[in-house]
Amino acid sequence: MSVDLSLFDHVQEGVVVADAGLVVRHWNSVIARWSGIDPSDAVGRPLIALAPKLEDDRYRRPVEAVIARGSPVTFSAAIHHYIIPCPGKEPGEFRQQDTVVCPLPVDGATMALFSVVDRTDHIANLRGLQQANVKLRRTVRLRRESDRINMMLAAGMDNAAEAILVVDHRGRLEYANPMFYRLAQLEIPSVKGQLLTEILRTDQGGAAPSRGDAGDLQRRAVARSGGGDPA
Amino acid sequence: MMLSEEQRDFICELFNIGAGHAAATLNDFVRRRVRLQVPELRLCRSGTEALSWMQQTMEEPRLVVVQMPFSGDMDGSAALAFTPRSAHLLASMLGDGDAGDEADARLDTIGESVLIEVGNVLMNGVMGTLANILGMEVRYQVPRFLHGGPEGLIDDGDTAFLVARARLSLSRTEMEGLIVVMFALHSHADFLRAVDARLEEAAG
């Protein structure tokens, strides 16, 4: 079968065709762009000169087997990074490529067709996503731990034998535990957000605590409000 | 048609020889100790039977599959199947880092390309050994990742299935998989005739 190798210049993958002696017979426009090597400089040269990994038996033998036995071979970017080196964005980096080598019958002979897919950006994006995923999982784990501790603290405060109040810097009630409401004989929703001094006045609606209880509660609340001015 | 014990032992031995070659190739590439054994093999005469045995053997209905069609003296396709968790583990250990979502053991495309390469090496090893020893000529197509799972392997045509359990050990981490060879029925008969011929030669 006669094949017009220039057809491979119209595909979007990198394509290299090498004959049984591993001499380059076609170097398509995509691989030329990626590698920076012009087809006129590549065709006719030994592929090993352009893809030094093929000096290694581990790579050369399977490629030779493609020509001899017709068994296709795949080289994953995640394991081998690349077969035909093409410079990456940073100096010293190479594009990450999935490479498939399959037999190509040309004029009664079998050649090796290297089909190269650039995975560089894809791998970088995946690694970025994986790192973000790891961070997110760590955040979720920390948040869960923090929620667990908060729930324990809340349960402890809800069941405390002492009245516990949290007020903001202006002295407005943010939180009071059930014991406070019981001692102060107050309705829970009605006083939240009110000034502590207002809450503890004896003319507050409902049954008010005794002066002694109120004064004591107020002193303790002020003492625990972290030094802010409750008034 | 059932396999005789002699046939089963012989085919299992061929699978093990091929798996040994594949393990040596993988070992060279990944610089890790790779061991691959085929302890059990079964001939299934229908897709339903093969699928049921595959899922039962792996204790997992979802399987990750790489398939490599072949033609020549035998027509059909070879496949390598792993549980999603084993596939994820294998791809992560062989490739550069995590090969997808670990939580649900889903593979990303990079993980898939690692699995395709493993499948390619393994199926070349096994099918190459079968073809060489049985004196058959077989041509292979480029392997592909089967997104539909093992159901995609099964068709309603006249197909016989050789399903082998594969035990892969990578740096002491054990993984279970399946090697499935699907023969068009005429190829299956040719295959068994070639097996019988080799057994007769060995006996004679």
Describe the structure.
The complex is a heterodimer of chains A (231) and B (204). Chain A has 231 residues and is of the alpha+beta class. Chain A has helices spanning 29-35, 39-42, 47-50, 57-69, 77-80, 120-158, 178-184, 188-191, 196-199, 211-223, and strands at 14-18, 24-27, 73-75, 97-106, 109-118, 165-167, 173-176. A five-stranded antiparallel β-sheet of chain A has the order 2-1-5-4-3. In chain A, strands 6-7 form a two-stranded antiparallel sheet. Chain A starts with 13 loop residues before the first strand and ends in an 8-residue tail after the last helix. In chain B, 46% of the residues lie in helices and 30% in strands. In chain B, the strands form two sheets. In chain B, strands 1, 2, 3, 6, 7, 8 and 9 form a seven-stranded antiparallel β-sheet that branches. Chain B has a two-stranded antiparallel sheet with strand order 4-5. The longest helix of chain B is centred in the N-terminal third of the chain and has 26 residues, at 5-30. At the A-B interface, α4, β3, α5, β4 and α6 of A face α1 and α4 of B.
Write a concise synopsis of the structure shown.
The complex is a heterodimer of chains A (231) and B (204). Chain A is an alpha+beta fold.
